[in-house]
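note to self — DONT lose this again. spent like an hour looking for the file last time. sequence + predicted structure for the chain T wanted, 458 res
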Amino acid sequence: MKNIRNRITSSFKLKKEDAFVICTPSGTDAEILLTYLALCQYQKNSLNQTANKTMPFVRNIVVTANEVGSGTVAACGCRYFHSSTPDGHQVSVGKSIEGLKNEYVEVIALPARNQTGAAQNVQSLEKKLEQLVQESTQKGQIAVLHQVDSSKTGINVPRLSFLKRMKKIYQDTLIIVIDAAQMRCEELAVSKFLNAGFCVLSTGSKFFAGAPFSGLVLLPTQEASLLCQDFTVGLGNFFAKDETDERLTTLQKNLPNRKNYGLLLRWETALANIEHYVSIPFEKRAYIISQWVRKAQKWVEETAYVNLFFDERVEAESQNDDFRHGGCNSIISFTLHPAENGKPGRGLDTESLKTVYQWMAQDISAWLPNNATVDESLVAQQQCLIGQPVKICEGQSELAVLRIALSAPMVCRMAEENSIADVGTRIAQELEDDQRLLDKLSLIGKYYHILKKHHYKQ
């Protein structure tokens, strides 16, 4: 894994002295290490008699909690989030990791959106976050504050200027985590995060489209002194020496010698895409991404029974964010509105879109009515992959979205041409797959109620 870690460092244009690199079985597993870091900081402060030695020791604050990985909140509390650990041990979901207690960590999960589905007002959110951090430091706790660098629908909060101000005020009583699991920021952003003293969590899947379950933690080198032997009993079920930076000797000596060949191979698939992507000139990447986003959004808007879910604040912030790929939100979200008397009806909720998600990946032509055309039957046969549903708002007016998203391999394919005209042709060819997907979604919207009857007869 040392070669993998070195290649990650090189791909993100980091110097060895900038960060410690730890490969993890998933992005969710990575959260456990960051809470461990906070517990060690608490222990250090406790020895220096700056902590009050009452539980909880750590307050872990997760923003956009309903638009990150499903196991994130549990992992942030150092609780098992799956019935088996990466080393194969069977455990009880929700129980504290061995050697820890539930009372050690308090997790505060804040939603991504308000009751109407609009993204939280960033100023109000930051005010709330500052209050939570201030309370925790007054209690002698260590606060862990997450910034989600692109949620499942592209939300990016809180702002970096706010995080830098908070770190300057609270220093070693605050650990800031950039959750870049989607990795929809430019590679140069990573070094800027680390230089600001922030920890970075990422994956080789999502945007880079490597095999799933390839996680990564980057720690600023000044954080090495925080690592301690306490709290490490259960970490060996998740991590091994070979996966961690050899300079993290305290952590390494408390981890097993187990080799995770699956993780090695998964990171190989990710790095093949990462290294290809970062070799493309920045300006060319930015042009391709912005063009694809603009045209894909236009196609969504022109698709019957499908509505583009356009959050003006999120989109505006994307355009002002120098760190985002192409300076725009490369996750395109939309709602599906089945026909009611020939016109688009109410948007579907999460459970209904889960069914649509299944239909998209299977041949549903046998369920079409007798009056369906031959072309419609051909569309219904298409097997399409699409982003899983994300709940936008709850209650009686619950609404959810489906998503299409740009990936690094798509950018690499579109970048194979040299002239702008030829690149434009490749973008159009790439969008043909998205057009087929949208055609099937429109068909489902048209015949949704008929398809639903057949689905429940199975």
